[in-house]
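Work Package 3 committed the consortium to producing structural models of liganded targets before the mid-term review. Because experimental data for this complex are still outstanding, the team generated a predictive model from sequence and the ligand definition alone, so that downstream docking and mutagenesis planning could proceed in parallel. The input record is reproduced below exactly as it was submitted to the modelling pipeline, together with the SMILES string for pyridoxal-5'-phosphate.
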Amino acid sequence: MTANRPHPRPGVLDIAPYVPGKSTAPGVAKVFKLSSNETPLGPSPNAIAAYRAVGEHLEDYPDGSASALREAIGGAYGLDPDRIVCGAGSDDLLNLLARAYLGDGDEAIYTTHGFLVYPIATMGTGAKAVAAGEREFTADVNAILAAVTPRTKIVFLANPNNPTGTYIPFDEVKRLHKGLPQTVLLVLDAAYAEYVQRNDYESGIELVATTDNVVMTRTFSKIYGLAALRLGWMYGPAHVVDAVHRIRGPFNVNGPAIAAGIAAICDTAHVERSRAHNTRWLAWLTEEIGKLGLNVTPSAANFVLIHFPETKGRTARDADEFLTKRGLILRQVAAYKLPNALRMSVGTEEANRLVVQALKEFLGKPA
Ligand SMILES: Cc1ncc(COP(=O)(O)O)c(C=O)c1O
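The resulting structure, written out as tokens with the ligand in place, is given here.
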């Protein structure tokens, strides 16, 4: 190490940088990006109009407390706007929670195939990221509870999880909460909650409302189609909200995002269309890809995890190369300890059909 220059805090250089999904396929005219779980229907037209209108006033600072947006979210979900904090994507909020509650020597638990922002946010604070084992690509409450030590300060749980698409029922979330010391903050990341169509699922609103150590994070990047604007929100106990407000950037949400977010959340018909599209094509993809002899992890979100054999010429890497050449961009997930799988976002009908057809050809099946 060169002594004579600034050095980041311990842990920072141990972080493997987050690698976003690919968005290009060299030499291919028409590209279908199915690598970042974006919505194929795009945002509400009202959100686009609201975004454009703010473009006339880029000289103005946004409202630093995003109060109109918090009111809109509160109205849509029946929540107290004072218990909502908005952020530049839920990434921002996950990082703020880590900064507020973790420090050197602390530990945060996530799950083996859990969303990678959790270990990155954790290690950035000097704390240790502890991976709890999963069962069948699904969070395992017993394993999480077994990983708790006196140093544990946060448990991060994506429900449903990215990149597996699996979820745990609300009873299991409650059992997890009950088993945690009250001093541990349980962060329920419900980025894909709007897509879930399961009777035993809850995003966590009730648990936040009735306890003192649970926070739920949400995003406008998925079903609302505003990923480019970076907009997310969290709902938490007043004392957690207070802590996050103290360290967040004073204008951490930009004006166009606030305006578009309000319009998006009010356009319930558009959200319903996006959900219906996803429900239809998620089931179709799971079935059709399964028929090709590939295992697909049952997903409650807007993507599927497809498992490939280790046979030469048939691996996930081989499939990725084959699909990319045809302009079909899926996501490699080796960084999630899933080297034999690819994650595919539910796309337009055209994209979904093209992927199934291309996988057929890749596997040498008759057309
Ligand atoms: C589980 C999960 N949480 C959070 C995020 C981050 O979303 P945002 O765009 O709001 O930062 C993602 C995005 O992929 C995700 O999959």
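Reviewers should note the following from the model. The longest strand covers residues 152-158. These observations will guide the Year 2 experiments.
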